[in-house]
Each structure stands twice: as structure tokens, then as C-alpha cells.
Amino acid sequence: MNTTTVSETKTENIFRDFYGTLTFIEKSAIPNEYGFKSKMGTDYKGYPDFLRDEIDYTIIVEAKATKHSDAEAEVQFYMKINKINKDLIGVAISGQDESQINVTYFYKSQESSDIEPFKVKDTLLSLKSLERKFYKHKYGETISDEELLRTLKELNNRFHDGNKIRDTDRSLFFSGLLIALTGDNFRSTYKSIAAPSKKSLAMNKATVTEAHNLNNAIVDAISAQLESKINNLSKEFNWKDKFSFIKNIDYSLLEYKKIIEIIETKIYRPYQNDEKQDILGKAYKIFLSRAGKIDNKNIILTPDHIKELMIKLARLNVNDVVLDTCAGSGGFLMEAMEKMIHKLKTLKSIS
Q: Which of 4, 57, 75, 295 would be 90's cystine partner, CB 3.0–4.6 Å?
């Protein structure tokens, strides 16, 4: 006779053991402001079993001892009934032993009431893997070269319109926005940044643009990201001075935020898991296409066929280290990396 006790606590412990006891907020500690309601259909408060709040999304988890359909139904209920203004990931888990657990994942966009299933393996995923799946599901696969070029040309037209961004500053401006977007705080706040108040305008003798606060936020985000990731010698630079031209950019807030949103959704997000693309090289070519020869006589991009020839002459192997002491946009390094990755994949397919 089988006397093994079936318990939802066992399922919850499997979840805790996998992620760590402090990784998720548990039911009893979930704050009321998330706005969850009781599964009984009343106005009383109710809570999922676990919750984790990230910058770009919130994870909601429901665990059941054995009946997996109940876990799926209840996590979807909590994904629908709440006050969370973010994208949502739902995790339904059931089972009494780690070797035979059932796990399914769901996704709900902030802009939609529809809940979609994630196409992932029936297993617990690390938070990093789950994040990659989320971004891949939301933003799709890496965009094609043709779509990337169309996006860069659209951005260049926006930069050129009204001469808002000087042609000599566009590449650095674009690079700076990509750097700023690597900061969790900037990604979560740039859309909500407002124009300066009338009071601050009255107190400021200098002319203040509508984008004043957003310009400052961008420069601060760039500086914070660079100072946290570069070597000690580079920390001697004042990065705010290097990007100070951004503070004079005079876009309307609506247009400015649209530009950043285009870069985030069509370039930054899709390329998070495919860093081998020479995005900056392609961008620089387009941004400098309108540039005058006199102003840009010191900006010279190596043609693609020269990069390809030099990498062929180097006869690279997968264990080689490539050093470019005069890297501009990093075109030689990107070409070398793509060649080495191709060689490595070829070797793996043979073996």
C-alpha cells in the first residue's frame, strides 16, 4: 500500500530549491498594490503562490500538487485580474518529484488581454533563460539585414529632419542611446519623463528645451553604464563631457521617445541574443551618407571588401585572439568574430 503523502508544499519546495528561497516573493508577502483578487470570484484579495517583479515584466507562479490543469487555470486567472502595468509571464508547475514535474509558461502583453503559451520545454528555466525566451517571444527573432537597414535609414531621416542631430554627431548619438538602453532604470523610465515644469522654466535664465529632462536622463544613463563596465584608465574620462552635445538636442518629447522606442524594439531587443552583427558599422555608413567632406574628413570607414580580405589573409583559427589597436566602429573585430564563429560551427558539425 502506497502511503506517500501528496502535498502542494512538495511542489512549492521543488520551485524554491531550484530558484533559491529569496528569489521570488511568496504568497504571504505579496503586497496588496499588485491588485490580485480571490479565485472564488469575490472582491476579496487573493494571491498567486510566487511573484517576481522585474524592470520590464512580472513573473506570476501557481503550483499544484498533481492536477496541472488547475495550476494553468489559476496562473492565467491571476494574469488577468491584477493592477500590474507591465508584461506578464505566467508559470504553472505541478508534480511531487523534480524528475517528473510538469511546467508550462504563458505570456501576456501589457497592451493586450490575450494570454499566449510560451513554446518552451516542459522544465524549470533559469531566470536568464526565461528572460531570453520572453524577449524572443515579444520582439521576435533577430531582424533581417534588410529590415535593419530600413530601420537605420528611418532613424537617419528623423535625425536629418530639421537638422536636429548634426551628421557628425549621429553615430555617437545612436551609440549613446544603445548604451543608455542597457540600463534597467533608463529602459523603465524614459517613456514617463516629462517636460520641465513651468516653475523650473521660470527659475532658469537659460533657454530650456522640452526635451531637457530626457536629455539629462540619457547623459546620466550613458555615464552610469560606462563607468560601471570599463577599465580603470578609461574611468579617468568625464563621460558626461564626451556626450554633452546631447543636452542641446531639441526634439519634442513625443518624437524623442518614438526614436528611442524604435531603437529599443527594432535594434536593441532583437540583437540582445545575436551580438555578432556589425550594427554600428552599418549604422555609421548610413548616418555619414549625408555628411559633408570638409566636416567629416577624419571619419573614414573601411570598405567591407577590405575587411573581408584582411581577415582572409590573417588565416584565423577558432583559438586565435584578435587585437585591433585602432578600432573605430569595430568592423575588423566583428568580421573576425563572424569568421571564427563560422569555423567553430563547421568543426562542431563535422565532429
A: 75
Can you tell me the distance from the alpha carbon of 21 to that of 24, in angstroms, rounded to the nearest whole number? 7
The beta strands (E) that lie in 54-101 are given as: 57-64, 87-94
Give how far Cα 32 sits from Cα of 12, 56, 113, Å: 22, 20, 22
In the predicted model, residues of the chain with pLDDT beneath 70 are 1-4, 41-42, 140-142, 201-206, 230-236, 273-278, 289-301, 329, 351
Burial per residue of 35-62, b for 16 or more beta-carbon CB atoms within 10 angstroms, e otherwise: ebbebeeeeeebbbbbbbebeebbbbbb
Q: What confidence tens digit (pLDDT) does each residue in 254-303 have?
A: 999 999 999 998 888 877 755 555 677 778 778 776 554 445 545 666 77
Mean pLDDT of the chain: 84
* Cα 309 from chain centre: 34
pLDDT digits (tens, 9 = 90+) for 125-146: 999 889 888 887 777 666 777 8
- Report the DSSP pairing between strands 87-94 and 57-64: parallel
Contact between 59 and 24 under an 8 Å Cβ cutoff? The reply is yes
Which residues contact residue 56 at a Cβ distance below 8 angstroms, ignoring those fewer than 6 apart? 86, 87, 134, 184, 187, 188
End-to-end CA distance of the chain: 51
